[in-house]
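Thread: Modeling a multi-component assembly for a lab meeting

Hi all, long-time lurker, first post. My supervisor asked me to bring a structural picture of a complex we are working on to next week's group meeting, and I have zero experience with this. I have the sequence lines for every component (410 residues in total). Could someone generate the structure of the whole assembly? Inputs are pasted exactly as I received them:
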Amino acid sequence: MACADTSNPSIAAASVAGVDFDEIHDRQQFGSVKWANQWDEFSPRVEGEDLLSLWTADMDFRAPETIVARLREAADHGIYGYTRRDPRHYEIVQSWFARRHNWSPKLESLLPAPAIMPSVATILRTFTKPGDGIIVQAPVYSPYFEVVQGNGRVLLMNRLKLEDNKYELDLDDFETLAASGAKIFLLCNPHNPAGKAWTLEELAALNAICERHGVLVISDDIHCDIRLSGRPHIVFSSISEDAAEKSFICTAPTKTFNLAGIPSATISVANKKRRDKLLAAMQASFMVNANFFGRLALEVAYSTGAPWLDQLTRYIAGNIDLVCEFAREHLPGITPMMPDASFLVWLDARALDRRVEGVQQFFVNRAGVNLYDGRVYGPGGEGFIRLNVGCPRSLLRRGLERMANALVSS
Ligand SMILES: Cc1ncc(COP(=O)(O)O)c(C=O)c1O
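Re: Modeling a multi-component assembly
Sure thing. I ran the full set together rather than chain by chain. Output:
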């Protein structure tokens, strides 16, 4: 049985001419973080021979040709001065979310941002004080820990419950944390690393608790567009007026269209007072001017990228099927969790982790495959590894085969 749900209408769309997700590209020439196996020049590097890089969350595919062509035109223009967005920019964002996610934010609610994480940092600094509690749901994208602690706020860890190879909310614990004086809940929707799209019932339950205790919500929706399971992406602020009033919805086309190196993001803030305050804080940090290429890429992506995205979604679903089938037959002790969204697969390797004393390092040393260590994602991540399947299938297969061989010879 296939893991991905190919009855999802967005997966069943027609092909775009000329798109070849199987093609392998050399990314090292342009400073790729993923292929350098090092996040930045100040971070430790994962050392290994001939490493296959299946870790950090960007893809090894070319962006849609419409984007490449427009950026090429802009590059050829040769003048890369200060850039502003015009009203059409916001209409394009609004139209994308209306068409793809049944959410039509008011145009005036939309603020521009350089990227998601700087926006999260600015929201935390603007609406909380040092020492204030911020709820996150671990295991989760680890920069959440850094942005909270690095800005002098206190992490309140609401651990997800692992039940039958799926994550469920612990609402009792969430309520205890909210009641303890938490100021903001940092929601990851869909959730990274597990790719879980939260349901209406789950979001409504979280919202009700936040409402009772006066907790604001930052929702990071960066992984919302690649929908694999047929489960819709529900934007937190679309569930009710009070949810919209308390939330900051952070969106970007960067994961969807592989634009992380030329980021551009949008934050929707329905509450006018908070929106004005956030804009003032962003202006004070000189964050509002557009990046010349980032602005353009966002507009072209959202206006023309849908057919490419549908084709990408089909390809990713095929890669996930490969992982599931291969794991069942050749990776004893490793169980993939089926994501609802995006191109990341969370692998439960706890038994193996104990046996080899560190599964991530084991695969680096013995298979030449670099995956993300689940420990990075905080409590509950121990013994898991995150596999990025946003790559040509032959490369993914090579990685899986190397992993299987390492297990056989261990
Ligand atoms: C959940 C999540 N949020 C934010 C980001 C990074 O966003 P940005 O590069 O726009 O700061 C990532 C990147 O992996 C992510 O997975």
